[in-house]
Amino acid sequence: MLPSSRAFLLDVDLQPGKPPILRAEATGDPLNWVAEHREELRAVACEHGSVLVRGLALRGADKIGAIFRHLANTLMCEREAFASRRIYSDGVYSSSAWPANQPMCMHHELSYRIEFPGLMLFACLGAPSHGGVTGVADAAAVLNALPAELVKRCMQEGWLLTRNYNDEIGASYVQAFGTEDRGAVERYCHANAIEFEWQPDGGLRTRQRRSAIVRHPVTGQLCWFNQIAFLNEWTLDPEVREYLIDVYGEDGLPFNTRFGNADPIGEDIVQLLNQVYEANTRREPWQVGDLTLVDNISTAHSREAFEGPREILVGLADAVHLADCSPTVEVAIR
């Protein structure tokens, strides 16, 4: 996704509080329009972090899948999912199954993996009657707004994700790793720097340490890049959190995050992170037929609570390896 002067060929509407919006005039097949403007769309997404394309009148999962495949260099198969998705076709998914009355706070997709999508693709087949916005937030702005001591600690230690896979809540290990073969799961964990422990009840517990701050491989920007807040116990609805702890114990939550040295991350830090995200959030309600491109490194995204049916298709595109995003510590620590 290299920035390009071709981005200026598109008339992108930039307004405070809203994502960049491009009103397309696709009089024929939307795929033909996307094919004609592919490089400009990718350049705009890289330059501005995201772009919402309105006016393509997208219809049908097959057509959207073809558009995703055309926009992407490659589409990724999801691994290590924290919630189930419907699979429409290879590399084309539904949004994550998550209670409609509970928001999914800001995060970078699969930022706990060592290989993650560089580009997210979203298309709206069904807009809810209320809410359900996919908000976006500038990761560099979020990083710059955080307290220096927190940034320094996260730069030095990274963050730790602990997961407990079972068949009762969240994604099972079979869903997350795409196999029932324990040996294959173990090989995957070894290859992806994941500590694992099989539980007596047949469940799986994993721990993985990841960088919390990365450098964008194209723009060179330092970005706050993680799921520290989203996958932390204090982001859960209080009643849900209490229930899960009562049933599974504090160490048995489906997921939780800590500092890289395994110290707990308190509710105050999670609230701070979510406040900073909110201060930098841009939002625009979905309309049926919308297409959105999001640079997954420079831009976090969320999903607000909603009412009514909502159908958003998702493509995870253009895999990036964490090793290609290593920041310069001297520059990042303020």
Automatic annotation (TrEMBL):
Keywords for the protein's UniProt record, in alphabetical order: Antibiotic biosynthesis, Dioxygenase, Oxidoreductase
Recorded GO MF terms: dioxygenase activity
GO biological process: antibiotic biosynthetic process
Transmembrane parts of this sequence: none
Highest rank taxon of the organism: Bacteria
Residue ranges occupied by any TauD/TfdA-like domain in the UniProt entry: 29-313
Obligatory cofactor(s): Fe(2+)
Pfam families: TauD
PANTHER family registered for this protein in UniProt: GAMMA-BUTYROBETAINE HYDROXYLASE-RELATED (PTHR10696), TAUD_TFDA-LIKE DOMAIN-CONTAINING PROTEIN (PTHR10696:SF56)
Protein name: TauD/TfdA family dioxygenase
